Amino acid sequence: MIATVSHLDTALKLATHGVPALPLREGKVPFRNCPACAKNACGGRPNMKTPGPCTCPAPCHGWAAATTDPNVINSTPWRRAWREAAGVAYHPGGADLTVLDLDNPAAIAWARENLPATRIVLTTRGEHWIYQGTMQGANDVRPGVDIKSTMAYARWLGPGTGTMTALPDAVRALTVKKSAPARPVATTMPAMARGGDCPHRSSAYLERGIAMAEQRIAAARSAIHATVYGVLLAVLSTHGRCGCLTNAHIARLFTAAQAKGETLRHCTDAWTNARTTLGL
Fold first, then answer.
1. CA nearest 85: which of 7, 193, 156, 202?
2. Model confidence over 245-263: pLDDT tens digits?
């Protein structure tokens, strides 16, 4: 019999190389939050660089659960997840990487013509081009092209081939034409044209609104897509024209949505659609 490498073994090997790993369930999505984290009452894990207060031992909070700690990866709650896992993912931004996800031959041809060569990993539909360096991730920056770096996860499909090169400006420029999902909302909107302080800058008011939005997403039992879109629309309608929102606020909403099974692509689409509806 040929020995196979388990998802747990793969994650532990990634951790030794400084690559934060997490388990994926069927559908290539992270595991849902455990009951203690279901409504983000734990405080969440909003940022890999400045971890939140959550000390839950389970792989909760989507991409933010990714870790290089072998004791966590090999712990009892994680072992239960590994037994059910359909694959392994990693947080590119946590390893100072950016993944250019090329979904079809046309996208690959475009990359070969316009971008510097780097390490390449074959995927089921195309290729992952991996660069050294981080940036805000974004979906659909070009037809068939997604960017996965900070606040995102990518499937681990092997180390790939080729020499990794530095993240080029040409890749960073791909997000200029289309807003990334977790960038701060512009602060020079019409509502502020009169000058003066934003009426919503009370930290308590904003915090209460974000917490309620997280709870609404967490409480949804059906129509998750519609719920996430409605929540983002409501948040933007209140705070989208005054610049109150920050990366951390938007990351919390994306994390809550991903904990309910939403993909980063769905979150990004909902965010973009909400901004378009409101003319932001």
1. 7
2. 777 778 888 888 888 777 8
List the one residue out of 42, 45, 7, 9 whose CA is nearest residue 28. 7
Instruction: Tell me which residue of 92, 30, 86, 28 sits closest to 58, measured CA to CA.
Output: 30
Strand, helix or coil for residue 70? helix
Confirm if 135 and 154 have CB atoms less than 8 A apart. Answer: no
Q: What angle do CA 56, 5, 69 make, to 5 degrees?
A: 30
Q: What residue type is 135 in one-letter code?
A: M
Give the list of residues 6+ apart from residue 228 with CB closer than 8 angstroms, or none.
Answer: 217, 257, 260, 262, 266, 267, 270
The CB density around residue 185, as the number of other CB atoms within 10 Å, is 20
113 conformational bin, left if phi > 0, alpha if psi -120 to 50, beta if neither: alpha
Strand residues in 149-195 grouped as ranges (E): 154-155
pLDDT, tens only, 76-117: 999 999 999 999 999 999 999 999 999 999 999 999 999 999
Looking at the DSSP bridge assignments, the partners of residue 130 are: 99, 119
Q: How far is residue 224 CA from its own chain's centroid?
A: 17
Total residue length of the chain:
280
Cβ–Cβ < 8 Å for 255, 45: yes
